[in-house]
């Protein structure tokens, strides 16, 4: 089994499309006002947005997008007016990450982990 598709809720799919296009995702399905799907620039994953009447309560959804050029990508987005909760920072779990929220307050983490994503020093071997 492999994970290849993630969908997040949105009150305004059209507004979210603009945001995710700025992040660099490629729009491949636009079924307004209810749905949109993107493909990631690297790999084979897709990401979509679906319209909801109300957003989930609590912390909501966390979505991680990895890029080897994290600092450069964040600088590009800041120059385009995207606001970050925190700029790239080295984390204790050996990832470098920046955090922001999409228009519906879904937590978006841009990060680079390299081999540490799947093979951290504390990995459990079966």
From TrEMBL:
Q: Which Pfam families match?
A: Glyoxalase
Among InterPro entries, the record links this protein to: Glyas_Bleomycin-R_OHBP_Dase, Glyas_Fos-R_dOase_dom, VOC_core
Q: Which domain of life is it from?
A: Bacteria
User: Which ranges carry the VOC domain?
Assistant: 2-113
Name the UniProt record assigns to this protein = VOC family protein
Source organism (scientific name) = Aquimarina algicola
């Amino acid at each position: 089994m492999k994970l290849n598709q993630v969908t997040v809720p949105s009150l305004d799919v059209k507004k979210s499309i603009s945001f995710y296009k700025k992040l660099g995702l490629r729009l491949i399905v636009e079924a307004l006002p209810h749905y949109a799907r993107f493909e990631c620039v690297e790999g084979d994953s897709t990401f979509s947005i679906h319209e909801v009447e109300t957003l989930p309560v609590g912390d909501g959804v966390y979505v991680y997008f990895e890029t080897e050029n994290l600092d450069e990508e964040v600088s590009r987005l800041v120059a385009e007016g995207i606001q970050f909760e925190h700029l790239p920072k080295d984390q204790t779990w050996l990832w470098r990450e920046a955090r922001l929220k999409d228009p519906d307050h879904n937590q978006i983490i841009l990060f680079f982990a390299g081999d540490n994503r799947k093979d951290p020093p504390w990995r459990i071997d079966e």
